[in-house]
Structures are given as structure tokens and as C-alpha cells.
Write a structure and sequence with these properties.
- The chain has 298 residues and is of the alpha/beta class.
- It folds into 2 domains: 9-216 and 233-256, NAD(P)-binding Rossmann-like Domain (Rossmann fold, 3-Layer(aba) Sandwich), CATH 3.40.50.720; 258-298, no CATH class.
- It contains 9 helices and 7 strands.
- Helix 1 links the parallel strand 1 (9-13) and strand 2.
- Helix 4 packs parallel to helix 5.
- The radius of gyration is 19 Å and the shape is globular.
- It starts with 8 loop residues before the first strand and ends in a 10-residue tail after the last helix.
- The model is unreliable at 294-298 (pLDDT under 50).
- The structure holds nicotinamide-adenine-dinucleotide (NAD).
- Residues 13-14, 16-20, 38-40, 43, 61-64, 89-92, 115, 143, 145, 190, 192-193, 195-197, 200 line the site of nicotinamide-adenine-dinucleotide.
């Protein structure tokens, strides 16, 4: 775990937008060198230019590609000599979240698992052995999601990838403890954060396009989404919560308590061996967005 960030180096994937860009800004404000990795290089380069003064490096990286992430690690170590904070943060949501689990295309599954799960896997495989070998205090932040700890029929492709990220991140925490490495782990589980993630479909790489092509949301679903995200947590707030957890060496960093009833209900059903009852996630999203003030978070 690291307590003093100044002069240390952070590598952040998905740093061209949203939570990743906010993590990069916060890292720079803490006096860190920042390596900004994104498949959309121009976006990462724009954030890097804003951070300025030669301590920010943008690297075009496709986290779904192992070789691309290994190259990122090589460039980070070559340029700054150490990596003290790794944020495996890049993520996508395929369109058509109202679809049933059997209706997603193979491309949807490959893209979701490729970026959300394999992005984290490639990050761990390329960076963790080198961070352990360095023997320095360090920290790894994996961005999972509330979608990784709740369930139900909606957004199944994304949710399955995030459930897998939760499992891998818990194993990272336990494994590092077992080998006695001075490396802390934080699992960031955002609720609703006002970012560009629901436009990810518009940037889906050709390799993952199949069937009828991109599935864009209907106008009424887009309107509902816009309403939900208008008052959502800002990326800056999410980054501040992440950095607070990193500084305290805390594993769980949830941006909201609005989904706690669903987390509890799922665990209770499993322990009672009752059939799943799945709390209404949409109602909780409205609560997270501040649209349902009548019902306080549990
Ligand atoms: N916004 C939310 O409500 C929310 C909620 C829960 C979890 N999350 C998670 O937060 C993380 C950040 O998402 P965000 O909301 O900031 O979204 P965002 O779309 O604003 O940012 C994601 C970034 O990842 C990049 N990216 C996509 N595919 C990539 C690839 N193959 N390789 C490298 N970079 C790639 C995109 O170009 C983009 O810059 C994701 O893991 C997401 O699942 C977001």
C-alpha cells in the first residue's frame, strides 16, 4: 500500500474519459507521474496535455490484447522507472441492455469479457510480477461495478464480466497477502457515474461487431438513461472516493449505498437456499440518481 503519492507513478487504463480521466487528474494533483492508456489515443493524449509538464504520458493501448498491455508496462517502466499505482479501469457496456441473456451476440460477449475481464487479467499478468519483484510498496485498483455484486435479467453480458472482475480482484487481494507482498488492492464498485460509458457502443471495434451491427438504445431508454445520469455521482467524486480507499489501504470502495438492499437480498437468498428474488435494480438506480428521495438507502 502507498500513503504518499508524490513522485510516484500511476498507470491508468481507460484514462481518456470518465472515471479514468478523473483518476489521472487526481493522480497528477497528488504529484504523481501518470501513464494514460486508452484505445482512443487522442482522448488520452488530450487529458495528458492538460496535465502537462512532462510527467504525463499517453499510450495507445487495447486492454483486450495481452501484447498491447505488456507494451504499456514496458513503456511505463522505461519512462518512469517504477509503477506504484496500477488502475485497471477501462470498461465498456454493450448496447441493448434490455436484451435477455440468450439474445446477446457472440461479439457482445467477446467484447464485454475481452475489455472488462481480460483487460484486468492482462493488467495483472503484465504488471503484478514486476511490481512484486520491485519490492516497493504499491497499490492496484481494479474498477469492477455494483453490477459485479448484484444480479437479475438486465445488462447480463456486462454484469457477468463484472462478477468475474470481482472474483479475480478478491483473488488478487488474497494472493498478494499470502506471498507477503507490500501491495494493497482496492476494488472500486461505482453505482451510477455520469460518464460516456453508455455511448461505448458507438466506438465498438470492428473485431467485435457481428449480427446486425451495433445495438443502439431506443429513444425512450435513452431518455430514461439521461434522466438517471443527470444527477449521478461525478467522475471526480468517484476518483476522490477511490483515492481515499487507496490512501487508507481499503479493499472496498463503493460510490453509493443505494444498491445495498439488492446485495443483501442476493446473499440472503443464497444462504437460505431460496430461489432468487432479485431486488428491482432500476428502482435502486433511481435512488442512486437522487430521483427517489422517498426511500433512503438501506
Ligand atoms: N459510469 C458508470 O456508471 C459506471 C458504473 C459502474 C462501473 N463503471 C466502470 O468504470 C470504468 C470506467 O468507465 P467510465 O464510466 O469512466 O466510462 P467511459 O466510457 O467514460 O470511459 C471508459 C474508457 O475506456 C476506454 N476503453 C474502451 N475499450 C478499451 C480498450 N479495449 N482498451 C483500452 N481502453 C478502452 C474508452 O475509450 C474510454 O476512454 C469501467 O470499467 C466501467 O465498467 C462505470
Amino acid at each position: 500500500m502507498i500513503s504518499d503519492f508524490s513522485g510516484k507513478t500511476a498507470v491508468i487504463t481507460g484514462a481518456g474519459s470518465g472515471i479514468g480521466a478523473a483518476l489521472a487528474r487526481r493522480a497528477a494533483a497528488e504529484g504523481m507521474n501518470v501513464v494514460l492508456a486508452d484505445i482512443r489515443f487522442e482522448d488520452a493524449a488530450m487529458v495528458a496535455a492538460e496535465l502537462g509538464d512532462g510527467r504525463a504520458l499517453a499510450v495507445k493501448t487495447d486492454v483486450s490484447d495481452a501484447a498491447s498491455v505488456t507494451r504499456l508496462a514496458d513503456l511505463a517502466w522505461d519512462r518512469f522507472g517504477s509503477v506504484d499505482l496500477l488502475c485497471n479501469n477501462a470498461g465498456i457496456v454493450p448496447g441493448g441492455r434490455h436484451r435477455k441473456v440468450w439474445e446477446y451476440t457472440l461479439g457482445d460477449w467477446q467484447w464485454s469479457l475481452g475489455v472488462n475481464l481480460y483487460g484486468v487479467v492482462h493488467g495483472m499478468r503484465a504488471f503484478v510480477p514486476r511490481m512484486i519483484a520491485a519490492g516497493r510498496p504499491a497499490h492496484i485498483l481494479n474498477t469492477a461495478s455494483v453490477a459485479g455484486v448484484v444480479s437479475g435479467s438486465g445488462s447480463a453480458c456486462y454484469g457477468a464480466s463484472k462478477h468475474a472482475v470481482v472474483r479475480a480482484t478478491e483473488a488478487l487481494y488474497a494472493g498478494l497477502k499470502e506471498v507477503g507482498a507490500p501491495i494493497g488492492v482496492t476494488m472500486l464498485c461505482p453505482g451510477l457515474v455520469a460518464t460516456g460509458i453508455f455511448d461505448a457502443e458507438r466506438h465498438r471495434p470492428a473485431a467485435f461487431v457481428d449480427g446486425d451491427g451495433p445495438v443502439l438504445e431506443s429513444a425512450d431508454l435513452e431518455a430514461m438513461r439521461d434522466e438517471l445520469y443527470r444527477n449521478a455521482t461525478t467522475p471526480g467524486e468517484a476518483a476522490d472516493m477511490a483515492f481515499a480507499a487507496i490512501a487508507e489501504g481499503r479493499f472496498y470502495a463503493f460510490t453509493t449505498t443505494a444498491f445495498d438492499a439488492a446485495i443483501r437480498q442476493r446473499a440472503d437468498d443464497i444462504l437460505a437456499r431460496t430461489d432468487p428474488s432479485f431486488e428491482d435494480i432500476l428502482a435502486m438506480s433511481r435512488l442512486d440518481a437522487g430521483l427517489d428521495r422517498g426511500r433512503g438507502p438501506s
